[in-house]
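Project outcomes to date are best conveyed with an example. Our students and postdoctoral researchers have been running inverse folding experiments weekly, and each run begins with a structure described purely in tokens. The record below, which covers 144 residues, was selected by the lab manager from last quarter's runs and is presented without edits.
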């Protein structure tokens, strides 16, 4: 017997990247760097966001210093709440590193620990901009 599901319960299909010709599922991810510059890239499903930043050579200063070994927090990314709520649970080591991260928010995660899935297609992740703001404040105070 064939089981049918209403259309609204079917998972969203990933985009197929037209530019590289590979047959793997591609997920469109928008990255916003420290300067507010947006880069939109297709990421292969199953890759981490750190892998994506490195492979696509995105302009994110100092990102992924420990290469995904959970020994830094330079891959800190802020997620949209609707996406964050669906991410896999954080492990204790990630929570420890997040505690050290600049600009921590309630939707912060480490990019090396988040694997891209089809349902994330079209999401935007942001690098915290507080570091720049803090420097700006210090420079403003020191010039007084
Ligand atoms: S790259 Fe260092 S914790 Fe993610």
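After processing, the design step wrote out the following sequence:
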């Amino acid at each position: 017997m064939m089981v049918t599901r209403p259309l609204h319960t079917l998972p969203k299909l990933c985009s197929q990247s037209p530019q590289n010709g590979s047959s793997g599922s591609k997920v469109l991810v928008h990255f916003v760097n420290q300067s507010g510059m947006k880069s939109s890239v297709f990421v292969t499903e199953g890759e981490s966001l750190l892998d994506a930043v490195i492979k696509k050579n995105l302009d994110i200063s100092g990102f992924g210093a420990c290469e995904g070994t959970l020994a830094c927090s330079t891959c800190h990314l802020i997620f949209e709440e609707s996406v964050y709520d669906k991410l896999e649970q954080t492990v204790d080591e990630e929570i420890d590193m997040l505690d050290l991260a600049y600009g921590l928010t309630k939707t912060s995660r480490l990019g090396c620990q988040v694997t891209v899935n089809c349902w994330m297609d079209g999401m935007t992740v942001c690098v915290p901009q507080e570091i720049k703001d803090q420097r700006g404040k210090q420079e403003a105070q020191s010039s007084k």
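The radius of gyration is 17 Å. The pocket of FE2/S2 (inorganic) cluster is lined by residues 50, 64-66, 68, 70-75, 97, 110, 112 (CB under 6 Å). The training component of this project remains on track.
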